[in-house]
Amino acid sequence: MLVILAAVFGSNFMMTKISLQSLPPMFVVSFRLAVAAALLVAIMLAARKWFPKGRIWIPLFASAFFGHTLPFSLLAWGQQSVDAGLAAILMASMPLFTLFLAQVFTQDEKPNRFSVVGFAIALVVIVVLFGPDKLMSLADQSVRQYAIILAAMSYGVNAIVTKQLVGMPWQQSAASFMVAALALSFPMLLLEDLSAISASTGEWAATIYTGVMPTALGAVLVIYLVRTTSASFLSQINFLVPLFGVLFAILFLGEVLPANGAIALMIILVGVALARRRPKREIISINKGV
Fold this sequence. Notes:
Layout: H1 2-19, H2 25-46, H3 57-78, H4 84-91, H5 94-105, H6 113-130, H7 140-161, H8 170-189, H9 201-228, H10 231-234, H11 237-253, H12 259-275, H13 280-289
């Protein structure tokens, strides 16, 4: 199941790249969210549940914005000119940003030498991918790569926001997230010229796929794995998603991974592994508590 989920998430970069060949990025985002929302609302209704009421919608909209609307939009805009494989590598920095933000803004994670080194490695990866001479560049390609990095950081913010939503039935939370994200995406459509949308059957199929598989089904599989295994087991997906993303881009899109991309991918996987380690003293104290 873990490998299947990683493959589903990894395929998103390839399918998004195909969708963007003719369709505008914000339309792709809204269409993807609409497909996912329709499926998840149907699942919620089949479970005889309904949308929550009251102030819970404040963190719901915050989570929907940082976990769906903003990163989806940044990723789609960035992938207009950034290769799918490179986008997968850039997004692989997400767990490093998540750990760093959790240690700064929550009491659940305490800083340690491994997490500090892991975050430093994330910065090294950015230097490797961009090159020292392009770090401060405002060229179109650099700006779009920075947009994808911001998408990874947005997921890190969302991991903190969602702590306020523990306890909701998964059918209710998944459907509510997606409906809120869809509503937030509508203003962004005003930035696009939708009067002459034209796409091939393959491009429409790729867009529908992103809504069904990595968005709707992906959310369900994540919840299933967390409930049947553990969050720490699920965290191993961070090693697999970029690998699948790069593999699919090479096999099906004919992309060629540059040398700095391969180096960055290896560095970031080492960084994720280091950032998730704990000092021996902390492990001993946890075992004693158990």
